[in-house]
Structures are given as structure tokens and as C-alpha cells.
Amino acid sequence: MAPLERVRAGRKTNLALLVVLVLAIGTGALAFAIGTGWAWWALAAHGAAGFALVLLSPWKAAISGRGLRRERSGAFASVALAVLVIVAVASGVAHSAGLWTGTLAMQVHVGSALLSIPLIVWHVVIRPVRPRRTDLSRRALIRGAALAGGSVATLGAMEALVRMAGLRGSDRRFTGSYERGSFEADEMPVTQWLDDEVPVIDASTWRLDVRAVENDGVASALTFEELDAFDDRVQATLDCTGGWFAEQIWSGVRLDRLIEGPDEEVRSVLVVSATGYARRFPIADVHGLWLATRVGEEVLSPGHGYPLRLVAPGRRGFWWVKWVERVEVSSTPWWWQSPFPLT
């Protein structure tokens, strides 16, 4: 291949890789956020994007080889980015197939992807690939369609092999999670979000503060015994972003029982943990949220949120606030928060 043709091919490969990397990270975040059946589509797109990276790797390897031989500056960062992408793809495939399950697998997969983001930004800034009109030519579109088709076909072939081999990956949920401890609370994993730790709470002195207006005085302070006396039950699936899910029967009080007739200005309800962790929900959802004191017939264990945890059916586990100590209604819209908790 002539030098000019190699440059053009390299530019198009780098541009395709950038698009696929952005797609992989975006669909991965979307699959993390969705707890309903729509997560399957996000997960499928995420898997296809991962295999697109694999299909593009021979061309990128040739480009990288030429760059390393010329000893270009920033070679170490480029190699580090390549290693992180390989780790992210390999751990994702292993988890999907059921060869490596558990929280550590997801931590490696997500962690390597997150660490790659600043290196991707660095690569774009230092070695920019500027789109051109010719990138939308008929030939380029055909190549893009071929890459997308090949990625989907590879994903389908892997899924078929997983089922034929009887690997555990054939039993995963539409979110990609694996069953752990359904209807057996003692077998359900104990996980926290990032730096959260299990607090020591004395239920005899603990109170749930319910506030009619955010940052206003306490409208009511309920004891554990008062909340445990309710028996509103719901069968719901806790689907953790750590890669596992468990279906349980939760009992406690439905949240709308504690919030009396919010006025028209109320737009959300904020649920706050004793650790400071908090999530905000649309006020219209309160009839479908529970504050649970028990799982099955047993009082919650400390690791599972004792004395009180939120149960949010249809949402991923990071919405299920544990160790709840405060509920506030607010005029702030529910979406006025980080899509994922920052701490």
C-alpha cells in the first residue's frame, strides 16, 4: 500500500474506532441505568460495539506498529489505552459467557472502561481525527454497515455458542446479571456503591424523618416499631450493577402512605441514607416505592439495609437506598441529580 493510502486508511480506522468507543461507553452506561426490558437492547448494542472493536483491531494493530517503530511521543499512553480496551472487552465477554461472574468481574470491566476515557480524550486532543465529507461517501457507509453487520453476527454467534456449550451465560437476566440468593436472603450478596460502608445503627434510637418540604422541619419522626407494624408486601427483583440479581418478598410500608396529599408544586421525593447517599424520584412514583424493614420473614441484616431500605421495583440496585433515615418532598425535579451517584 502506498504511503498516502496508508495514511488515509489509518485515519478512517482511527475515526471508526473513536465512534465505536463512544458507542460502547454510552451503551454501557445506558445498560447500567435501565432496569426494565429496554436494558436488553442497550446491552445488545453494547456487546456489538465491543465486538466491533475486536473486528477493527487488526487494522489498528498495523497502525500502532508503524507508530511504535517511529517512536512517536505519547506511545506509552497509547499502549495503556490499548491495554485498557483489551481488558474491558475481554472481561465483558467472559462475564457475558459466564466464564467469570461476580462483582469483581464487573469492577474490572467498568473500571478499565472508565480509566480509558481520559486517555481517549487525550488521544483525540493530541492526534485529532477530523471528519470529512468523504467519510459519508457511499463506500464509507457500506463499510460501516459491514462492520455493524459483522459485529451483530459475531455477537449472535457467541450467544449461540454459550447456549450450545451450556455455559452459565445462557441463564443471565436481560440486564446481564446472574441470579444470586432469590428467596434466600442469607445468600443474597452484600454490596455498596463506591465508598459507602455499612453503618452501625441502633434501632431503639433511630428515627425516620419525613419532611413535607425539603430542608423544612420534620413533619413526623417514625420509630422502627411503627414502620415494622406495617405489612405492605411486594415481590421485587433487586438487580445490582455488580452483576447479580435476587428476587425477594419485601415487607414494610408503601411510601405514599407517609406522604399526605403533596401540593401541585411538589415534583420529587428525596430518599436519604444515614451515610449521606441519596436518590431523588418523581413524585408520581411514590405509589410504587416501598420502605422495607423485612426481606422474606426476617428483619433486614445490616448489610442489606437495616433498619430500613428503599425497594424500587424496575430500577437498578443503586436506586434502592439502604439505611434510610430521611424522606423529603421537594419542588426540585427528579432529574436534577447525577445519573449515577458520585459517592
Describe the secondary-structure layout:
Layout lengths: L2 H31 L5 H31 L5 H23 L5 H24 L11 H27 L13 E2 L28 E4 L8 E3 L1 H5 L3 E9 L3 E11 L13 E6 L4 E5 L7 E6 L2 E2 L9 E3 L12 E7 L13
Parallel strand pairs: 1-5, 2-11
Antiparallel strand pairs: 2-3, 4-5, 5-8, 6-7, 6-11, 8-9, 8-10
Helix pairs in contact: 1-2, 2-3, 2-5, 3-4
Detailed description of the structure:
The chain is an alpha+beta fold and 343 residues long. The chain has 2 domains: 3-171; 180-330, Alpha-Beta Complex (Sulfite Oxidase, Chain A, domain 2). It is built from 6 helices and 11 strands. The chain has helices at residues 3-33, 39-69, 75-97, 103-126, 138-164, 224-228, and strands at 178-179, 208-211, 220-222, 232-240, 244-254, 268-273, 278-282, 290-295, 298-299, 309-311, 324-330. Strands 1, 4, 5, 8, 9 and 10 form a 6-stranded mixed beta sheet that branches. Strands 3-2-11-6-7 form a 5-stranded mixed beta sheet. The longest helix is centred in the N-terminal third of the chain and has 31 residues, at 3-33. The chain is elongated and about 70 Å long. The protein starts with a helix and ends in a 13-residue tail after the last strand. The model is unreliable at 1-7 (pLDDT under 50).
